[in-house]
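User: Structure tokens for this complex, please. No commentary.
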Amino acid sequence: MNQQIKFLLQESEIPHTWYNIVADLPHPPAPVLHPATLQPVTPADLAPIFPDAVIAQEVATEREIPIPEPVREIYKQWRPSPLFRARRLEAALDTPAHIYYKYEGVSPAGSHKPNSAIAQAYYNKVAGVKLLVTETGAGQWGSSLAMACNFFGLACQVYMVRVSYNQKPYRRALMETFGAKVTASPSCETEVGRALLAKNPESAGSLGMAISEAVEVAAQNPDAKYALGSVLNHVLLHQTVIGQEAALQMRLAGEEPDVVIACTGGGSNFAGIAFPFVGQMLRGERKKLRVLAVEPEACPSLTRGHYAYDYGDTAHLTPITKMHTLGSTFVPPGFHAGGLRYHGMAPLVSQVVEEGLAEATTVPQLESFAAGIQFARAEGIVPAPESNHAVAALLREAKRCKEEGVGRTLLVNISGHGHFDMQAYLDYMAGKLTNYAYPEEEIAMALAGLPNV
Amino acid sequence: MNQQIKFLLQESEIPHTWYNIVADLPHPPAPVLHPATLQPVTPADLAPIFPDAVIAQEVATEREIPIPEPVREIYKQWRPSPLFRARRLEAALDTPAHIYYKYEGVSPAGSHKPNSAIAQAYYNKVAGVKLLVTETGAGQWGSSLAMACNFFGLACQVYMVRVSYNQKPYRRALMETFGAKVTASPSCETEVGRALLAKNPESAGSLGMAISEAVEVAAQNPDAKYALGSVLNHVLLHQTVIGQEAALQMRLAGEEPDVVIACTGGGSNFAGIAFPFVGQMLRGERKKLRVLAVEPEACPSLTRGHYAYDYGDTAHLTPITKMHTLGSTFVPPGFHAGGLRYHGMAPLVSQVVEEGLAEATTVPQLESFAAGIQFARAEGIVPAPESNHAVAALLREAKRCKEEGVGRTLLVNISGHGHFDMQAYLDYMAGKLTNYAYPEEEIAMALAGLPNV
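Assistant:
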């Protein structure tokens, strides 16, 4: 019996193009609207915050978009990332399922985020930008952009959601080691931040607030641009290297996935692994498979949000997009998966779910950590709290295979490692964590404030 | 111009044997003595704490020792580890040097330590052992053994040097996530620990003390054995996969190293990268190269210790070996590189330095962190504080190349990442760290207590 556990590709097999699912979707994406006029945005509307090349990718309809050679050169530092067969986990679960995981924690910043950070830093460098301003939740995006800015000689300023800033001082330390300036959000540095603090000086912050602060700073400085780590089409596009590689690696393994699983906050690691498979399915190149988006129970935009036009940020500086949303003023509770604490969902991920090409499910916090620990003991890799949500859903599927006596092939994306999240693991093991109930009232209030489009 | 930055091997190129430098050294190693009788130890003396297969490796004289297939299978999870050309660091330093680094931080536990932990857990499993007891300084060895024990279904108990236990709660969290029991050393759990605490209730601990506690526990439990993470011949042996791979990778890069650099605490990562190159040099298969062992200024066994017979631990439970030592009762100050806080040095590393095959140098704490940050900004990888010592020596060599206008090829081992050491980086950036002077008096006192052999 072949006991192979790792499926590696050659550097030459790193994709040469990013995959744009827009080319294959049954319907075109809903137009993006200007937050003031409610008319479709034009490239000129976006020019103050993004370089032209990024704007072009945001509205692109070609199936394949070339990866610039300098970006692909840097990808080679950690790509192709490994695909593993989780044989020890299968044995521990005594499941007939074949479990594969794509591991994005091998990047220097420890997650999938550099796949887009390197690309965005490159396009901004080429456009003559001097400073990139961004937000970060758990800090995975912020540290990735800080690293990428170094590689291209750009300055980097990060607004970090306050609850994560406090929970994860070592993610901040990583960004500062890379030379970035890091500010807890909401802050006194911006108009938006000062207004939020005036309303609630104890605000835990949210990705929506931090985005508002970063956009404000970038829009006011002619040498600066803004960079977003998820949600937008171009970010999802950059992440498709994950799924393209995984598809080749599954072929090396001689198997086809029956289920593809990833966690969803803004949607970028999910889209990264899932979209290339969905595209092959849409083009009739692959059998039908289940695609599973896994959300935290306390912030379930796909499963319990409205599919409606909403703002991407709290201060309503960003364009309005059609997506699954819990309302832009909703502040998720401070659970330990900062990367999943976002009120909305990537419009393309929302559309894929609406069109029945993927399904969504939720996992409570305690189950996510129990799953992460079981995974770590079997495989040696400690997943990030965000990834633990995907692992929990994976374990459910593996157990279902056992119950049904069916040996399905499961593919999960481990979007990053948990090395900077050990306080959360300590708290879990000490019995200090709880589940968060679905914030019924807060979300109803936030949804009542959806824009009238 | 070839801009390649990563040099990967195939899984089939993971070494099939470990390299035993004893076969090539000009002189046989000095005999190891029993701590009570001062006579050469016999395998029977070691049987209470090590399984037979490990004892056989400790005294082996064959050049090549086969790696068991189950060990090599697990190595495949992260091996062959990558070799990188540090082109961005070269550019930042504006040096004509060609800088290569072997990166062992890709292992699931984040350092080179699993290379031996997997092997030791395997041999103990085969021997029917149920519990492995060990010590750890920075926690890299302890977390590696905790992981390895999981893979083979063994229990794991770790005595962690108290200063590291306090400085690095997240390394402890990692061990606990892997299911190990972790105790701060000196502890009340052992006779040795109680005696040490009676003398000094505030003891910061040391590797020498933690070794004594672990050996005591293992020797008293018939189902338990002891595992050591460095110093001994069999541990160094297991680490030679690093240098064997690096030699193949340098050939892929089309270059031969002029200088090989690694940090030295107990000596295992140094031996791992250096011994295969030294062996090739001794056998006339390679031109002469410089081999550089880098120590912390506050614990410089190779550069300022005596080359003499000494105990490996504080309580004098372990055999007496001939090595560079600062005295077994010396307690190094609490600088942030716990893996380098050991009074002695691997006997084989000591012998290699004594025979003029390698040279040693020291680096102060502040220079080590400055070097680590410069490396991180250029390469995206944050080295462990231990590895920062090697990086500091690398930067000195690269600067010398620039001054002399000579483009030497430098190869450094980055033994692990610093993800669990971000507090040290934060403290450094906040100006809270200092250099430690050479502890002249303490070391003189400890050296006065060398055994009379």
